[in-house]
Recover the amino acids of this structure.
């Protein structure tokens, strides 16, 4: 990952040429390598399960990897979770925005990459929760766990035999944790 030293805004990040994976963390651009195969498969599994559950229920929108969410301003923070959910009542009647979403997703899912440090993962969780994300799932392929973070609550670590629950963010959504790793 490379980090810039020049402070950048969300609008400047949006206007950057190329299709590199980038996030903006307190005005610093972080460029990331493409995700690995296993990471992509896990991300797709969860996106598929969530899309299958929400489709036709008018609950909201499941968003694919790297959709930008502006989590803070001055300095700007733009994060791109691997999978996200925004409930229907928050999507403008005028239609889906073309650029980054102004605000936090209701659910952010991050699949831990081999190069991610614990500090980087915790920083992402903190950014999401501080911005108003109602639930964050941290998926750890190495340990085959999903850690559920909620504002004001202790994290809950789920193992392969456990059930992942959408709680009040996605009421009625349930799947086995093992399904993320198929």
């Amino acid at each position: 990952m490379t980090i810039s030293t020049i402070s950048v805004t969300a609008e400047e990040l949006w206007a950057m040429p190329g299709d590199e994976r980038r996030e903006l963390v307190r005005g610093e651009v972080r460029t990331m390598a493409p995700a690995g195969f296993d990471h992509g498969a896990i991300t797709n599994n969860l996106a598929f399960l969530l899309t299958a559950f929400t489709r036709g229920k008018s609950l909201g929108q499941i968003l694919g990897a790297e959709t930008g969410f502006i989590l803070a301003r001055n300095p700007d923070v733009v994060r791109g979770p691997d999978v996200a959910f925004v409930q229907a009542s928050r999507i403008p009647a005028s239609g889906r925005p073309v650029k980054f979403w102004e605000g936090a997703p209701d659910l952010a899912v991050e699949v831990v990459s081999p190069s991610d440090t614990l500090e980087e993962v915790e920083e992402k969780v903190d950014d999401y929760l501080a911005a108003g994300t109602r639930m964050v799932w941290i998926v750890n392929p190495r340990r085959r766990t999903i850690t559920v973070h909620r504002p004001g609550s202790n994290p809950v670590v789920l193992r392969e035999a456990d059930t992942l629950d959408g709680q009040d963010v996605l009421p009625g959504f349930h799947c086995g944790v093992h399904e993320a790793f198929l």
